[in-house]
Structures are given as C-alpha cells and as structure tokens.
Description:
22% of the residues lie in helices and 20% in strands. By secondary structure, the protein is an alpha+beta fold. The protein folds into two domains: 4-121, MutM-like, N-terminal (N-terminal domain of MutM-like DNA repair proteins); 135-256, Helicase, Ruva Protein, domain 3. It is globular, with a radius of gyration of 20 Å. The two termini are 27 Å apart.
Amino acid sequence: MPEGDTIWLTAHRMHDALAGRLLTRSDLRVPKLATVDLTGRAVVGVVPRGKHLLTRIEGGLTLHSHLRMDGAWQLYASDERWRGGPGHQIRAILGTAAHTAVGYRLPVLDLLRTVDEPAVVGHLGPDLLGPDWDFEEAVRRVMADPDRPLGEALLDQRNLAGIGNVYKCELAFLARVTPWLPVGELSAGVPERLVTTARRLLEENKGRFDRRTIPGNRPDRKLYVYGRAQQPCYRCGVPIRWDGGGTGPADRVSYWCPGCQSGPAPA
Length: 267
C-alpha cells in the first residue's frame, strides 16, 4: 500500500533515472491526455509531495499522479521486460534512451502547468518527508478538532502529509490507544510523541520498499498490528482484532490490540 515513504523512494528512483534526459517515448493512456505527446522534452525532475508525485517536464509542465490504494510506478532498463501487470493496467509510459517509467493502475493522472502545482497539492499539511516540515504546525492541525478520532486525524493529509492506513494503525498501537479515541482525550505529551514517531518511522523506511515499524531485522516481525488479524500480539499475546470500517471514502480497515490499546472500539 503506497504511503509517504513509498512515494518518496519512487520519486527519487525516477528522478535519478529520468532527470536531465530527453523523453524518447511518451504515452499517456487516459482519455483527457490521449493526444498529449511529451516526446523530445527533457525531464526536469521528479518530486514527492505527501502521497502525490510530481514529474516536472521541460516547458513548464508537470505530470501529476497519485497512487491511492494500488497504483504503482515501475522503472525498467531499456531492454528489460515489464513485469508490473497486464498491458490494460498501464496508464502512463515515460521513456528515455536508457530507462522507462511505467505507471500501472494510476487512479489520478493530470498534466498541468508547473506554476499551478498548488492547485493539486496546496491543501496538504506539513510533509513528513518534505523540506516544508513544521513539527509545531503538524501537532496543531492534528489537535485542531478535539472530538475527531485519532485515526481520522492521522489520515487527513491536510493535517500532515504522508501517513496512510498502515502507519495509522501502527502509530495508534505505539501510543497504546485505539484509532477511535478522540484526539482531545490523548494524555499530555502523546500528540507530540505521535508526530515525532510518525516522522521517525517514515524517515527510517523511505530508503526501502520493505516497510517495518518493529526494530531489528527479523523477517517474520515487521509490523505490530497491521495485517495481523487474529494473530497474537507481540507484547501481550492477546489476538489482534480488526474492523472493516464503514462505507465512506475515508473508512479503511483498522487493526488494534485490545490488550495493549485503551479507548473506544467497534463492537
């Protein structure tokens, strides 16, 4: 599941492979961009912004993409076989003489002027992995609505950009509270520790796709609760519970340990 650390690593790999090089192939397979041809233009750079990816193209253009739940950009050498999925899932192809970036299952793909990037990312809060990181502002935004459940506050990209459902569940576990606890009921100092931990975890994971929140290198122990329904908690042994969420666009599955985490939870 793409989160801020995955986008950061994807952007930096694409930047290293494409930046400063001319596009020899351009194929944008969405109806509104079907006639666009970027061939002959140089890639200026690839920049991550929260969960958004901005590929800047010579001539003041930016190809904006968002991976959401299962989108992906795969990078291949010019003579390498593509393995990211069947051809009908490809939404974008950007190729140079040496490398080709292929975007699979991209739910969001727009071409805009680079100066208009704030129209698609200007609403985001402080980026956990970005140059605009502001710890105090991030804490203020998370705590702005005391009645809001912690999980919702963490997932809201207007509060701090880069946290997805995996980190939401893991951060709640590390704070020893459930994702449904109103942020106004967090003990003194917990909001600050949560934001600090969020940034630390994304920093530690941004250089690898194999995400982990548990210290060490055990291959069988990477995450505390996410994806571990009915398995024993590593701390207390109580089976991890999960809830499939509701029907709204912000509702996502949540995992938690009823032995370690206090606060409200679904029946």
